[in-house]
Amino acid sequence: MPDTAISVKPLIEVKDLAKDFDVSRPWLNRVLEGAPRTLLKAVDGVSFSIKRGETLSLVGESGCGKSTVARLICGLYGPTRGSVIFDGVDLATIDTRNRMLEMRRRFQMIFQDPYASLNPRWRVGRIIAEPIRSHDLLSDEGAIRKRVGELLTQVGLSPLDADKFPHEFSGGQRQRISIARALSSNPEFLICDEPTSALDVSVQAQILNLMKDLQREHGLTYLFISHNLAVVDHISTRVGVMYLGRIVEIADTKTLFARPLHPYTRMLQSAIPDIQMSGKARTPVAGEVPNPLDPPPGCAFNPRCPHANERCRAERPELLPYGDALVACHGIQEGRIPA
Amino acid sequence: MDKYGTVGVASAQAPVPGRWRDFFDGDVFYSFKHSPAVMIAAAITFLCIFAALLAPWVAPHNPFDLKTLNLLDAFTPPSWTAKGNPTYLLGTDDQGRDVLSTIIFGSRMSLLVGLLATLLAMAIGVSLGLVAGYAGGKIDAFIMRVADIQLSFPAILIALLVDGLARVALPREMHDQVALYVLVLAIAASGWVRYARTVRGSTLVERNKEYVQAARVIGRHPLAIMFTHVLPNALGPVLVLVTLHIGEAIITEATLSFLGVGVPPTQPSLGTLIRIGNDFLFSGEWWILVFPGGALVLLVLSINVLGDWLRDALNPKLR
């Protein structure tokens, strides 16, 4: 389906991406007990594209596959199906290590746990310089040191911090080091896997603002994974809501927060704490995410959905345009649920 | 650039004295100062290593210099007994060699074999464990099954097998030359499994940490990730294993030499000395056996006490 309306070519395009994890019992057990292979569909046909300079957020409850999407895009997992197209190049078609390395320079990842994402035995300077050395961006040690100093200054630390070990820093400072490492190869695209969820609320805002500033200065494109809608509202241009390995709604941030369509999005949104105590009626977050090993037939959300009918229980809804948004819901498309 | 350069030099040197101070102020040194047994063990171990290193200068006689040997001095009892000769503190053996000197030279051979075998076992075990843990899947299954099979054979049996194969494969003259290396290989072949298992375990934990994933996203080569990221973080428990293994390797070497398949008789180790002494025990020349045996027990005991202490001192749960 060629989309002629978009004149700017997207920087990154994800088409029908899927990842199954084999969680079968060991081979011997399967043979003895006659049990079949069990596959966990962590991501099941996710498509989206991100334009240069944009921030797309993926939100959802734990286990909905949002981190798996991040890992698929940056190549930590190989996809079961689908493709990731970066700047017009399908990453699966890259065959030589050198060409892949050149691609890897252009996208980097920021991880969730700042206590686990830095090698405890390396000095900060060496950690930040790892992408520079790995991609041979600078060869002179003095120049590398200077560059590390600049990066540390950019993320609000001191060039002298390069000689310290990660355990000498707080969580927020460590996340700044992570960001400096991610920036050191001059990437265009950053995948941020819940970069603030392990931090104190006061520090979260600092890190988010830093990320926004850096985006403006370097023209970065972000894929932002989070379960925190308030954080997502603050940072993103567009938001995709994931449920059980699929995107159920994707829209501009303003549209999504002003007029959520999918019943799941509405449920999530009404769960955001409201400081004014406006007293508006909440839809409580009811039920639990179904077992991904045995997802319900039809719409995966139907056991928790107040509007579910026979069609929802039988036929899986596709992601279709509705107004400015794309939404996967029979109720919305049929007009059963008031928009 | 110059500014950064000088900053780097100044602060790169600073941590070194700091680290030493940390070590002497730290828990490990504290527990060392407060356990006399460990201090005695350390003293004995270092005395043995020192004597072994400087054997030609420390030993009162050179037991392998045939010109200085006198068969008339054979079977001289220790110097404090009635028939003793003050020149030979611990007496002499059947060929008139000074027992103290043979012990010093013998422990040199024992320590050398013990250390080399331990280092070789460590190198093999750590590499295989690292690869098994990091690669996972079939490679992991293959390496660990080999390790399991290896573990079901007693160490001595494997050592005898390797030695036997070497004897068949090599001509006799060559065998004496390479006997030392065959012995080291034999002991290492039976000892690598513990390193492989320990390192594989830590590698499994480390490889899923985000810093390893970050290195993968950066595009580092898997071998570079294994050796620069995973290995330094998986190496802690190996230090303790090494200490305990040295004692065991020395005992294995002594056993093999006692059985006559160890180092050639021209370069005796403590095990060879014990075998020689064993022939004279019942004819009353007890010192030829007892002193090398005592030296072996003392050396291995000290190393084991040190290893045990190190294991406890480095385990944060036991502090």
Describe this structure in words.
- The complex is a heterodimer of chains A (339) and B (319).
- Chain A is α/β, with parallel strands linked by helices.
- Chain A has a domain at 12-236: P-loop containing nucleotide triphosphate hydrolases (Rossmann fold), CATH 3.40.50.300.
- Chain A has helices at 27-33, 66-73, 97-106, 124-134, 141-154, 171-183, 201-218, 229-235, 253-258, 263-270, 310-314, 330-334; strands at 12-22, 39-50, 55-59, 81-86, 89-90, 107-110, 189-193, 221-226, 238-243, 246-252, 320-322, 325-327.
- In chain A, the strands form two sheets. Chain A has an eight-stranded mixed sheet with strand order 6-7-8-3-9-10-12-11, sandwiched between helices.
- In chain A, a hairpin with a 2-residue loop joins β9 (238-243) and β10 (246-252).
- In chain A, α6 runs parallel beside α7.
- The longest helix of chain A is centred in the middle third of the chain and has 18 residues, at 201-218.
- The two termini of chain A are 26 Å apart.
- Chain B has 319 residues and is mainly α.
- Chain B has a single domain, classed as MetI-like fold (Orthogonal Bundle).
- Chain B is 74% helix and 0% strand.
- In chain B, α12 packs parallel to α13.
- The longest helix of chain B is centred in the middle third of the chain and has 37 residues, at 99-135.
- The two termini of chain B are 46 Å apart.
- Residues 1-16 of chain B have low confidence and may be disordered.
- The chains are: A alpha/beta (339), B mainly alpha (319).
- Chain A binds chain B through residues 71, 74-76, 100-101, 104-105, 108-109, 111-113, 116-121, 130-131, 134-135, 142-143, 145-146, 149, 159-160, 162-163, 178, 181, 185, and chain B through 1, 4-5, 7-8, 11-12, 15, 209-211, 213-220, 229, 232-233.
- Uncertain stretches of 5 or more adjacent residues of chain B: 1-16
| Fold-level CATH name of the domain at 12-236 in chain A | Rossmann fold
Give me the secondary-structure category of chain A.
alpha/beta
Quaternary structure: heterodimer
